[in-house]
């Protein structure tokens, strides 16, 4: 079977599956390019409001393909990064459905999403130093931002893996979803449902604001970032329609 990124666009959600079970979904140069293209296609499709990334069981993603890694120069490393960086750059809300091991570049792929749901067999593993390799792809920044410096040091310097429950406790995952892979993907779709129901332009603007305000120190600066897109949404037809529907429900006899 050819290793590939399987794309399924349905119900406002683009489900992107790294499908390379023979290598535990390790990212080759071709798979990374395919993943980047799939993310970009989802962004162009106006029917898509959220992206879910997962891997064919039992793994989520075992990291970068070792042959590609062994022969990589700077250009090659950046090509390996391109798949998960496309997820990190994505203008749409993103969810990683992590059903198995997320290792190295696979950890980066999971961390690149806005939210992570963990199956009961999920594992989050850095493993760079175990291979005599310096971390790459922004792993140290993402891990410290999400889990804090101590947990990042434990994972990166001391090789401490996190199982599903520990990942939730550390802030790397939102929650554990019991059941099989299908249940995990279903939970990701359920999580995405409010984004699917939201007006797409307001959704995109909200994610842009989240990114801008994340590094701000002052509340007043966040107010300034949010006010222009909020004014635009107030003037939108979608807001007028939804406001009238809400008023009608309020007026309706109970």
Automatic annotation (TrEMBL):
Its EC number is 4.2.1.17. CDD domains: crotonase-like. InterPro entries: ClpP/crotonase-like_dom_sf (IPR029045), Enoyl-CoA_hydra/iso (IPR001753). It is an enzyme of class 4 (lyase). Keywords: Lyase. GO terms for molecular function: enoyl-CoA hydratase activity. NCBIfam families: PRK05870.1. PANTHER family: ENOYL-COA HYDRATASE (PTHR43802), IP11341P-RELATED (PTHR43802:SF1). This is Enoyl-CoA hydratase. It comes from Amycolatopsis melonis.
